[in-house]
Amino acid sequence: MSEIKSGELKRELGLMGVITNVLSISIGSGIFLLPALVYVILGPSSILAYIFCGLIFLCLGLCFGELSSRIPDTGGMYVYIQRAFGPMAGFISNILYWLGVGVLACGALMNALADIAGTYFPVFQLTWVRITFFGAIIIFSCFLNIKGIKDSMLFIKVLTWTKVLSLMLLVIFGLTRIDPANIAWQGFPEFGKIGEASILLIFAFLGGELALASGGEMKNPSRTGPLGFIIGIVLVILAFCAIHLAAQGVLGTSMLSNQEAPLAELAKALFGEVGFLIVLALSFIAVWSTLSSILTLLPRVLYAGAKDGLLPDVFSKIHPTYRSPFVAIVFLGFLEFGFAASGSFRYLLVLVTGSSLLIYFGAVLAFLKLRWNSKNQDPKIFKVPGGNLIGLITLIALAWVFFQLTNKELLALGIFILVLILLYIPVAIFKNKKLRTIKKNI
Prior knowledge:
By secondary structure, this protein is mainly α. The protein has helices at residues 15-26, 34-42, 47-70, 77-85, 87-118, 127-147, 149-175, 191-205, 221-251, 262-271, 273-307, 326-342, 350-373, 387-402, 407-441.
């Protein structure tokens, strides 16, 4: 298989692009539901779950930041795992990432967009309209993506910062109307309840690390990757905490009867009926922003796997003019459209959280292994102070969260991994055969 250096991709992504992608993916549709869902479990003590999950993701951010500095290549989590543990682990993590997480998430997000539009425009409830809508989104995203990450990022920045600034304005108004009784401390809840709420929040936080998949297109990736990702994670944590405090502080126990749309109720309390329309439009922008970032970044994971010889070489092809991974972009576009239009993603969504947690676990193990084995003392590499301890704490926290998954989720994940292991056997045989042929011809 032909080797294509990641340097052949255009290095057009700066610090703000990485930060934007973290915010775009992490602050998605979930934030419009989370305040009420967490409040139902923990009541006035809900902020504890945000702090707990925030600390886990801050530790993850530090680990992933160092990894992106040590391995500033295209592929993100996949490439870190592959470099640390070899081709089999790389093959499993690559497909887990773009199929078990990315494609399924895109299918869900496209349907969420149609559902949001359908609440105001009933025509979006018609199947043919939804399918046409999905096709338009995919074609538009693929067009921008093939032209290059710079064009895609311009559109993503407009959506993301519209979403973030609008939410922050809503929060600022909300914080001025807080009833202190609604946020008064009433003691620690049961630890098990914090775990139950944490699973919801973990799902909301998931995905921001995909911003690192574009390492081969970053300007000064050893600095841009870690700094942009860590800043993005900190901003996401602060935003989630502020949004929840505003919703809980204004709505209080009324969130129990408004579990499906707590932010819409917050906007209605602040701005009247027009507030509902504002949040409806904002939720549409939020979902589209998240979807656009995933559609843009996911092909880089597939491309990296093909470049490393673990997937068909065709996916590593670079567009001769735009120098983008156009085959990977088009292939995933068809796949995402198929899953969204058929609705088959719904049967596999149980894989998303477990796959993400497993990839995180593998990446943190890679962080520790590369730290222990590395002789590279390059001062330009970002190194986490007390990194070994942070890595071990993060592993324990991830393991605890992982075993909060249901038996159904664990079983589905186990079957999927077994299938991938069986698929890897012919890949390994083919790769070894090709290597022997190359050696004979030398």
